[in-house]
Structures are given as C-alpha cells and as structure tokens.
C-alpha cells in the first residue's frame, strides 16, 4: 500500500545562492550564544572561553531576498544581532576539528532577531529561550556564497547599520569559538546533516529596533544583508 500524507506537506525552507538559480535547502538552524567576548560582557557575562552553548531557530524563520522583518507580537524590546551563517553540505557525528571545514558548503550574512524582553523573562525563570529567539521571520539572511568561490573566511569586518548609522562592529577573527571548532563541538551533541545552518554569534552593540528602521549588514568577503522593520 502506497503511503500518503494526511495533510499537504509544508514547503521546504531554502536560501538563495548568489549568482545562481539554485536553492540551498534548510534542515535545521543552530545558533551559537555569546561567541564574541565584547558581546558576552555587554550581556553581563564572563568573556572567558567556556564550552560553547547553542539554541535553535526554525528553518521557516528565515527571511530571504531582502524581505521585510515584521515587528513581532508580544514584545516591545526587539534587538538586532548580526551574524555569519555557515551552511553545511555534509553531516556527521563527532567531526574532528581538522575535518570540519570539509563539511561547509558556503556562508551568508544573517540577523538573529531577538525578543529581548521575552528572552529575559525566560532566563529569569530558568526556561528555554524559544519564544525570544525562534519566532516567525526572526532570521533574515542573505544569499549564500559558496566556499568554492570565497574560501573559508576567518577574518574580516562585521558590521550592522541601522538607518545608516553603525550599531555593531567586529571582526570574524574575534570569534571565541572558530567555525571548525563550532562544527566539531556541535557534532558531539547532535548528528549534523546536510542543510544544517549555524549562526556563529554576534559582536557587541546589539540594541533595539523600531518599525520603519532600515537594517544593513555586512561581512567582509561574504556579502551584505538588507531588511526593513515593518
């Protein structure tokens, strides 16, 4: 007997590939917390190198092609966090650091938009962060650039402008946990798969956005991101 779906399956979440008609299918979205020392300090935490920690967004939280970011419900304090997206074409478990970059298909520029007030309530109550992090449209992302074209950037300016004014500035070389280390550590916790995307953490300067704000993100050697808060 041929199996059928009880309901229409949801569409596969994808990211565009710059300069191509191809689409990159998304399996899962992992985010690394407090991966820049200056951001750890501004959030009230010790910047010393500890084991990394991760939370997740949902694949369909991605906003692509310069789409708008609708200001979410149930919050009055939504913050921007500019990050590099790392897209995997190969998965595995307990991946060695030396082999980790072989799993990377490409890179992009992303925003980890955060309902900071709801996240703060969750932290205070010792609850998970999903309502602060994994809401609809919470991950605007640029088109991906294949590593076969740009290599594996480990340094380069990272910045975010809001209405033309710099809010966040950093450099990829300031990541506490570098991309190969993130992949290796994460693969010890989960079996990674093709289509997984990792958001690599944000530099200092996170702050609130308002309706009408225009956000422009840039990562040297990777690309740019544009979105408007509506």
From TrEMBL:
InterPro entries: Fumarylacetoacetase-like_C, Fumarylacetoacetase_C_sf. Pfam families: FAA_hydrolase. SUPFAM superfamilies: FAH. Keywords: Hydrolase, Metal-binding. Residues 29-229 form the Fumarylacetoacetase-like C-terminal domain. One of its GO terms (molecular function) is metal ion binding. The keyword Transmembrane does not apply. This is Fumarylacetoacetate hydrolase family protein. It comes from Pelagibius litoralis.
């Amino acid at each position: 007997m041929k199996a059928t779906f009880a309901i229409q399956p949801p569409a596969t979440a994808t990211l565009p590939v710059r300069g191509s008609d191809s689409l990159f299918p998304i399996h899962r979205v992992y985010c690394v917390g407090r991966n820049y020392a200056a951001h750890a300090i501004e959030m009230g935490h010790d910047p010393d190198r500890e084991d990394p920690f991760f939370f997740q967004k949902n694949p369909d939280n991605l906003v692509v092609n310069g789409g708008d970011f609708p200001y979410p419900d149930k919050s009055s304090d939504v913050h921007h966090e500019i990050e590099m997206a790392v897209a995997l074409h190969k998965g595995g478990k307990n991946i060695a650091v030396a082999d980790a970059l072989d799993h990377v298909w490409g890179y992009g520029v992303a925003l980890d938009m955060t309902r900071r007030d709801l996240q703060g309530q969750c932290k205070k109550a010792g609850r998970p962060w999903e309502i602060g992090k994994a809401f609809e449209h919470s991950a605007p992302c640029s088109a991906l650039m294949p590593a076969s074209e740009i290599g594996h950037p480990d340094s380069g300016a990272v910045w975010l402008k809001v209405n033309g004014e710099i809010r966040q500035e950093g450099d990829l070389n300031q990541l506490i946990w570098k991309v190969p280390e993130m992949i290796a550590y994460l693969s010890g916790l989960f079996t990674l798969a093709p289509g997984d995307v990792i958001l690599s953490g944000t530099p200092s300067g996170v702050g609130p956005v308002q309706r009408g704000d225009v956000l422009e993100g840039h990562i040297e050697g990777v690309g740019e991101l544009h979105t408007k808060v509506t």
